[in-house]
Amino acid sequence: MRTFDQPTVRCDLHVLQILQGARRLIEMGWCQGAMARDADGRAVDPGSPTAIQFDPLGAIERAVLDLFRGDGRYLVQNYYKGFFAIASGLHTRAAIALWNDDPARRKEDILARFDLAIEQSSMPPVPHAAKIAA
């Protein structure tokens, strides 16, 4: 039963909100080899208040948590929206981590990938062609 003094929580975020929030986090601090790092370079949970640098997946997780003010109840369903948008062409979580952790990778590459995902997520879906009966 819902109490009337508490606002209803919108549990389904738009992918653009997630991607834009994650991109801002990467812009402020990017890392390799962990989903998130603190000021001393130690690996921490992306939801940790000490996290200041993020890899793409850590940034997506933290963006969702930030949008819900730390409430993790809707993390998974929204995390995967951001994950699939950024993973286009990379296919798996391991591939995203490997791509991010490549020694030749630069912060600009990560930001460009987010820009592409944001652009693609902003476009209206293309309708499928009608099937022709044989």
Structure notes:
With 134 residues, the protein is mostly helical. It has one domain (15-121). It has five helices and two strands; from the N terminus they run αββαααα. It has helices spanning 15-28, 56-67, 75-87, 93-101, 107-122, and strands spanning 36-37, 53-54. Strands 1-2 form a two-stranded antiparallel ribbon. α1 (15-28) crosses α3, α1 runs antiparallel to α5 and α2 (56-67) packs antiparallel against α3. The longest helix has 16 residues, at 107-122. The radius of gyration is 17 Å and the shape is globular. The model has no long low-confidence stretch (mean pLDDT 85).
Output the strand order for the largest sheet: 1-2
Element string (H = helix, E = strand): HEEHHHH
Poorly predicted tracts of residues: none
The whole-number mean of residue pLDDT values reads 85
The total tally of domains equals 1
Fraction of helical residues: 40-55%
> Describe the biggest sheet?
2 strands, antiparallel
The tally of beta strands, per DSSP, is 2
Termini separation comes to: 54 Å
Radius of gyration: 17 Å
Shape: globular
- Which structural class fits the helix and strand makeup? mainly alpha
Q: What's the number of helices?
A: 5
